[in-house]
Write a structure and sequence with these properties.
lipopolysaccharide transport protein A fold; 13-stranded antiparallel β-sheet; mainly beta
Length: 135
């Protein structure tokens, strides 16, 4: 099943979803994919909730976000994506990578914007942040 939204300009694809029309909230307990038609960003997770009114998507369990324009990717256990501002907040086993310049960051949390390739990855007491830059 695919649900298309004009504002924000996204397409939600999943096998099962509940769309609460009055609150404009879409929930799926199953894997789903969100594609932003303008920014060319895709986010997938094993479950999620999209608040179309607030333009915020919360995905969890093996989340992957990808900016096709900027050739950047982020993986995490949970991602909160502010669709209007394109701000991304990721938690849990975060991996961020980009093609130009070739870069890979890992840590516990990340905050930034995929389309700007501006991501800050931090660690915690159990997990350090690690940077890998390839020249």
């Amino acid at each position: 099943m695919a649900l298309n939204s004009l504002e924000p300009p996204i397409k939600i694809t999943t096998n099962s979803a509940t769309w609460e029309i009055e609150t404009r909230i879409v929930k799926s307990p199953l894997p789903l994919q969100i594609f932003h038609r303008v920014e060319e960003i895709t986010a997938t997770g094993k479950k999620g909730e999209i608040d179309l009114e607030q333009q915020v998507a919360t995905l969890s369990r093996s989340v992957r976000g990808e900016s096709y324009k900027e050739k950047a990717e982020i993986y995490a256990e949970k991602v909160i994506w502010e669709i209007a501002t394109q701000k991304v907040e990721a938690e849990g086993n975060v991996i961020y990578s980009q093609k130009e310049p070739k870069l890979k960051l890992t840590g516990a949390k990340a905050l930034g914007k995929l389309q700007d390739k501006q991501i800050v990855v931090t660690g915690n007491e159990k997990e350090r942040a690690v940077s890998e830059i390839v020249f």
